[in-house]
Amino acid sequence: MSPILEVRNLQTHFFTKAGVLKAVDGVSFEIGAGEIIGLVGESGSGKSITGFSILGLVDEPGRIVGGQILFKGQDLTTLAPADMQKMRGSRIAMIFQDPMMTLNPVLRIETQMIEAIQTHDSSVGKDEARQRSRDALGLVGISSPEERMRAYPHQFSGGMRQRVSIAIAMLNRPDLIIADEPTTALDVTIQGQVIHEMQKLCRKTRTALLWITHDLAVVAGISNRICVMYAGRVVEQGPNEALIGKPMHPYTNGLLGSVPSQNRRGEPLQQIEGIVPSLLNLPAGCAFENRCSNALPECRQSAPEEVTMDDQRILRCFNRMK
To answer: Domain check: are 30 and 156 in the same one?
Structure first.
């Protein structure tokens, strides 16, 4: 079966007075129907810009300068702005970290949900749109949806607002949802509930989900496969169990070492020494070389190419961890 989304050698650069900032520099991955892919990395790694690029939401001075974004076989980079606008919210939806970026504070939830449906399908009557909205709220675990639809966003807790955002994203039964740090601002209990609801929805509706986060612990519990980004590139990607159980890139290993674990109770968390190099002036070699304790001479001379391993893992590293 063909994947819902194929990102091929995506390059998104920002053209600033200081120079060209390579926020996304040759990123490739794919997502199948019902699959959940985790896109992980530190702040500034390019993961959110990857999501915005897919949706055509990169503003000047940034722009896509290379690669393809194939959605069900159609290259989104070639679409006219009006066609891309029709695609957003109907076939592809996004959930933001702050639900108030999605919700209008002065409109009732009901009004916003009905409008989200009728904007993309004018043939849907108000009664049908209201029923679909009520069903969507029930799917994400909001009790008494008929009553809650008449509330305003400020009458919901942070976790409930995020559930409403997820329900709105699901309204038009999209093929793909991009979730950008959707649980970062929530407490651990609510975070777990939202993740559980998203997993159920993807299984039930066969919706593909790209989960963007800096938290490897969160993505380990929800995803089928994980892509680890560093300095604009995917440095390691593969099945969840293989990547978590046996990381091969030193950066992935460092991220895992910084996550609290019952196996290391009482031990200090690991830190990745150094800082991410400037994306305006990336080194000729591996971008992680200045922070890697296992760097080889060739790491300073040229950037490693992608290599596919026996376990279907894709890796960019000269000195693979065993």
So the answer is: no
- In one letter, which amino acid is 180? D
Could you tell me what percent of the chain has a pLDDT over 70?
A: 96
Asked if omega into 61 is within 30° of 0 (cis), the reply is yes
* Model pLDDT, residue 195: 82
User: How far apart (Å, rounded) are the C-alpha atoms in residues 152 and 278?
Assistant: 43
Residue ranges of the chain with pLDDT lower than 50? 322
Residue 122 shares a structural domain with residue 149: yes
Residue-range definition of the domain harbouring residue 39: 1-91+175-185+205-262+273-322
Per-residue pLDDT tens digits for 152-163: 999 998 888 888
State the pLDDT at residue 2.
83
**Residue pLDDT, tens place only, 11-52:** 999 999 999 999 999 999 999 999 999 999 988 899 999 999
End-of-domain residue from the set 119, 149, 171: 171
Cα torsion 244, 250, 252, 255: sign: positive
Beta bridge partners of 63: 13
pLDDT at 262: 58
Nearest CA-CA partner of 233 in 184, 271, 178, 277: 277
Closest listed residue to residue 40, CA positions, set 247, 201, 301, 291: 247
Beta-bridge mates of residue 5 = 31, 71
Burial of 141 (0-12, 13-18, 19+ CB in 10 A): middle
Q: What is the domain count for the chain?
A: 2
Q: Is residue 192, in this structure, part of any structural domain at all?
A: no
* N- to C-terminal Cα separation, the chain: 33
